[in-house]
Structure formats: C-alpha cells, structure tokens
Amino acid sequence: MMPKLLAIDDEQEFTNLMQNYFGPRGFQVLIAHAGDDGLRLAQKEKPEVCVIDLKMPGMHGDEVLKKIKETLPNTKCIMVTASEGEGKTRAHLMEMGAFACFDKPLTSLRDLESKIREALNT
Hints:
Layout: E1 4-8, H1 12-22, E2 28-32, H2 35-45, E3 49-53, H3 61-71, E4 76-81, H4 86-95, E5 100-103, H5 109-120
Parallel strand pairs: 1-2, 1-3, 3-4, 4-5
Helix pairs in contact: 2-3
C-alpha cells in the first residue's frame, strides 16, 4: 500500500512540486491549498505524513499542526516556513509535535524525502 502524503500549502507551485516529485516515488499525494481544507482532508484520509506550510491565509500551519496532533497523534507533521525569527518558531513547532521543520524555499527535495521516509519508519 502506498503511504499517504498530505501537502497543505497555499502556493500552487509548491503543491505541484510535491505531487510531481513524490507521486512517482511511491506516495499517494493529497493536496490542500488552505489550512481548514487540509485539516478536513487529514481527518478523512488519515495520511501517514503531512507537510504543512506555516504561513497561510485563514488557518495558519501551527493551528493545523496542533489539531492534527490532537486528533491523529500517529500522523507525522513536517513544517515548512519562510518566516522570520526562525529559531524561535522552529523550537515552538517542535514543542507542538512537529517531526521536522524545513526552510522555504526548499533547497533539496532529497532532504525532505529522507525526512519523510524517516517519519514513516518511526
């Protein structure tokens, strides 16, 4: 069975990149372009891993992370952020239950893939 990977990001370019990279690598890639849509999709599909953008209109990524961890504690969440004050944000997200944090724009999809595969094996 293919692992489910949910990408929640308001940027179409990023979600297309996730689909095009991870789809051929054996993942069922689910896409949401808003936090509340992503949360609903997560509840319905129960993905093994979510990649969540921190800054989105409406429900921010940290709120999505909190709700997913409350309702789907086994789902691993990887946050992506381009926000300032990264160190503080990163530490806070890890305390909230994020499995990992990556900077946007991503410099290496291979690094993200490696972390996603690690999350699947924990």
